[in-house]
Design a protein that fits this description.
Elements lengths: L1 H14 L2 H53 L15 H7 L4 E2 L19 E2 L18 H6 L4 H17 L4 H6 L2 H5 L5 H30 L8 H28 L3 H30 L5 H17 L1 H11 L14 H37 L4 H13 L3 H27 L27 H20 L4 H6 L2
Antiparallel strand pairs: 1-2
Helix pairs in contact: 1-8, 2-5, 2-8, 3-15, 5-9, 5-10, 8-9, 9-14, 9-16, 10-13, 11-13, 12-13, 14-16
């Protein structure tokens, strides 16, 4: 019976032009979304390259100025920008702390449309005020980006619904189901075979379309074979979930119209409603502290320390005798007092910043705990991890930037407090930023999606045993 179903289903799909239509749709959707993702990655690379080029050009001018100063020549620039001052180097010639895109970054925009990919930490800047966000279009944030993840999570289930909603009801409405009921196979097993075959053909079309698009756009899936295999596994697991839902609906709902409405309702619930509800519950249970209050407290603290800068500097030099080795440190300039004050403000603001990070982590843990409720969340997080655009990736980048900002500051502070000029010989020793990617862990979402799909299929098979073929024929 299975071999007969296989041949009959293939002929039916070819005659109805479902396979031809799905092939064209998948090629267009995968092609445009992949191209769009590649364009975003290219723009990201160009922005980082432009920032690094600007720094290199500024460094050339800085070295020329240093050479002129060291030769005793007059330079026609403002005194506070002369690079012989370590604070001028630290503020006007920062390094670029960039987060380079990963090889599969075109898969999912993820958090990339919310956070910038490079910053320029300065010695006078505050770590709390480092700008990790960028201006984005509110319309784009509302509808998201048309990337491969969008096609897989939002559009592919709709194609599956259109492909499978009337497997049983169409036979019933055409009058051929009673003839099938006379065959030596249960109606439930026949529906499962039909959907399994459609899953098989759609899987082949998806794999063929992806490979075709990748090769046409010059992407080599074999260059990142592990990620590509994980991508295929995720897509198949996500598709299997929707076919399992279609199996349940075909058995229990009835007419084609009711089946379509039921599956579309489930799509709204799992893809749109559940993620929104989880996010809102996380914000309600773990509300973020007021950012306005934090900014006001930071301003008040800066105002207080400004009035006590001499006292703060004395305490700072007492706690850091390595900066008070030379008698020249007794010359107290503006930057001597400023940097000591900033260090004190940073230490006092640390508990407030930690409260923000703790609440944010609590919200993420909340979603992590209940993400299995929605296959869309599982798929989105897995795709973001493959692309390197997940929350964890940007949190890792933020922490590395903060560490580098402190390294940049600590490298130049000895020059300041020992009243030592910065020279061209010191240029080679300036610290540089190198982003370290997160180690790719196991894709837990894939086995979880397969498990949920098999459980749904088992529920359909077990529950259908309590109903005879006559009840199935008369439902709807």
């Amino acid at each position: 019976m299975l071999s007969y179903n296989f041949k009959y289903e293939l002929k039916l799909l070819l005659r109805s032009r479902w396979i031809q239509l799905l092939s064209i749709i998948l090629l267009l959707l995968f092609g445009f979304s992949t191209y769009n993702g590649l364009q975003k990655v290219e723009k990201r690379k160009n922005d980082i390259l432009a920032a690094k080029t600007e720094i290199q050009e500024n460094d050339v001018l800085m070295l020329k100025l240093l050479d002129s100063v060291e030769r005793g020549m007059q330079v026609n620039v403002p005194s506070w920008t002369i690079p012989s001052s370590p604070m001028a180097v630290g503020n006007y010639h920062p390094r670029v702390a960039a987060m380079e895109p990963q090889p599969m970054a075109f898969l999912a925009t993820g958090q990339a449309d919310l956070f910038t990919h490079y910053v320029k930490p300065t010695v006078g800047g505050d770590d709390a005020a480092l700008n990790f966000t960028e201006m984005t279009s509110p319309v784009q944030l509302l509808f998201g980006s048309f990337d491969l993840a969008f096609v897989i999570i939002y559009l592919l289930p709709l194609l599956i619904i259109a492909f499978s909603y009337n497997v049983l009801s169409a036979e019933k409405e055409s009058g051929s189901l009673r003839l099938l009921a006379a065959q030596p196979i249960r109606i439930q097993n026949w529906v499962l075979q039909k959907l399994a075959l459609r899953f098989f053909w759609l899987s082949l079309l998806v794999i063929f379309s992806l490979l075709t698009v990748f090769f046409l756009l010059g992407l080599s899936p074999f260059g990142n074979s592990n990620t590509f295999i994980s991508l295929l596994g995720l897509i198949l697991a996500y598709m299997l979930f929707w076919f399992a839902l279609a199996f349940l609906v075909n058995l229990w709902v009835g007419s084609s119209a009711k089946n379509a409405v039921s599956l579309l309702g489930l799509w709204v619930v799992f893809v749109l409603l559940v993620p929104s509800v989880l996010n809102q519950l996380g914000n309600t249970i773990y509300p973020m502290p007021s950012r306005n209050l934090m900014i006001n407290e930071l301003r008040n603290m800066k105002a207080e320390v400004t009035e006590k800068q001499d006292e703060i500097l004395d305490n700072f030099l007492r706690d850091h005798p390595e900066y008070a080795l030379n008698d020249s440190t007794q010359t107290r300039g503006f930057y001597h007092r400023l940097m000591a004050s900033k260090k004190l403000v940073k230490e006092n603001m640390e508990p407030i910043l930690q409260s923000f990070e703790k609440q944010l982590q609590n919200q993420q843990n909340w979603v992590e705990k209940f993400k299995w409720v929605s296959p869309a969340i599982l798929a989105q997080e897995s795709l973001n991890q493959m692309a390197g655009t997940s929350k964890a990736d940007y949190e890792n980048y933020r922490k590395q930037v903060i560490v580098f900002a402190e390294e940049w500051r600590e490298h130049l502070l000895p020059f300041l407090y020992n009243n030592q000029d910065f020279s061209s010989n010191d240029y080679a020793n300036l610290p540089s930023f190198r982003y370290t990617e997160l180690t790719s862990g196991s894709q837990k979402g894939i086995p979880m999606l397969f498990l949920i799909s098999f459980l749904l299929t088992a529920v359909g098979l077990i529950s259908s045993r309590t109903r005879n073929s006559k009840e199935v024929l008369n439902q709807g």
